[in-house]
Predict the 3D structure of the following.
Amino acid sequence: MLYNLLIGASALVLSPRVPGATHVAAPALQQLAVTMEAKQEPHGGTLVDLFTGDAPAEVDFTVELNDRQSCDVELLCNGGFSPLTGFMNEETYNKVVADMSLPDGLIFGLPVVMDTNNDGIVPGSKVMLTYKGTDMAVMTVDSKWQPDKPLECLKCYGTATIEHPGVRMVAMERASSYIGGSMVGVGVPTRDFPCKTPKETRADLPDDADVVAFQCRNPVHRAHYELFTRALDAPNVADNAVVLVHPTCGPTQEEDIPGPVRFKTYEVLQDETKDTPAGMKTKWAYLPYSMHMAGPREAIHHMMIRKNFGCTHFIIGRDMAGSKSSVTGDDFYGAFDAQDLGKAKSEELKMQVVPSLNLVYTAEEDYVTAEDAKEKGYDVKKLSGTKFRKMLREGEEIPEWFAFKSVVDVLRAEWK
């Protein structure tokens, strides 16, 4: 499932709201002329920064985080999960699971929770959260409960079978109890990907331009590149817009390419394209986020996160954050379920939607929409992910219409 040349693009989005304050609707979408007056407002109105407080000198417990938890802690502390100021308590968790919103009604995609099997950790406990030698944050617990995990999975993933990777994570990786409470940030671990904070990323983005975010968890190939660079030509994206390519660097599916290898492919692609017209309109940053493979609900989650990083639009690709049954191989979500949910929530999110593209490569005219190719009778070229991996393993030449040579060279050298 690595790559499919036939890529449907995208719902792209934008949103402002402040809990407890009067909500001011965004201007209506202009059909011919679209302008952005200022950078995107953070989700909930304020960009959270948990590193500004004083951590308690003494703590009751020290907990070593796993890879997924460390990503959550980093995004909580740097404001990536704004407006959250710590792991969700029971009330917030239940509301997000049931309604995809915080108690004040602000939309929120997925629960952000901390789990424990330690009976000694109770409301009032102060817990140091560490990761591979770095003290990341101190959490003051104000809520502890045993979650209804089957309900969480049904609502968030659309299924409760452990054939789904996200359900397996909830059922088999997370402990029996969840704890919630406020946090104070202490430190940030060194990762394979250098992850800028939302504040740092915003500083690199233009003040008066649309910013179109592209989420990925695999190397970028030609079809992906065409997809996110052509998004700037959409009718509701301003002429001076830029793209932010924002790959996730936390845990993903087991069969995905390892993070350090993905990082190297992104770095060589940046270098190869930086002086091209499209490259000069493309920004890059990395996100410390662990994938849930939750399909539509995760698409909403990604929108909110990228909004906090300053983006005004977001590309929802075909079967975004989708997954297959580990037993039957069947898809858990329809190809356009994530796009459909993004569109259905567009008014609530106050986000713009960019028309989808379905790009294919043709011998006659490079990349065109599938509709154009069919109408003109073009010869469409296809290369499946299975075939691509086989060609990599056997040292066969990969056509450059499918993949950048620099990316292929990294995969051949690093990925076995």
In short: The chain is about 30% helix and 15% strand. Residues 50-185 form a domain with the Sulfate adenylyltransferase fold (CATH 3.10.400.10).
